[in-house]
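[Automated response] Your request has been received and processed.

Submitted sequence:
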Amino acid sequence: QVQLVESGGGLVQAGGSLRLSCATSGRTFSSYTMAWFRQAPGKEREFVAAISWSAGRTSYADSVKGRFTISRNNANAKNTAYLQMNSLKPEDTAVYYCAAKSPGSIWYSGQPTSYDYWGQGAQVTVSS
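Generated structure:
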């Protein structure tokens, strides 16, 4: 059974930091693009960041560029993705989802429908 499991969410004050983790199991994701999306109440799910299978390429939404860092660890076939979030703002409050995209003609997409596997989400709340 394929699973992506997020952890590390929580409540933090504005200006603080959190680190999200996404643990994978059930198949090897070393060739997959890993990404983070988020969804705030009443809003559509939006792209946050993506990282290529080799970690050689990354992409970020303008709203998080310079504050968030995506990384991954493919060692020992564990294929874990991370999202380091610094200088958090109240508008970063959302449920954060980990996603995996199989290899294709484009290495990443900002559209949720392009991703094959999803985690259950982790709540991040930033207080002002």
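Summary generated for your ticket: The chain is about 0% helix and 50% strand. The mean pLDDT is 95.
If you did not submit this request, please reply to this message.
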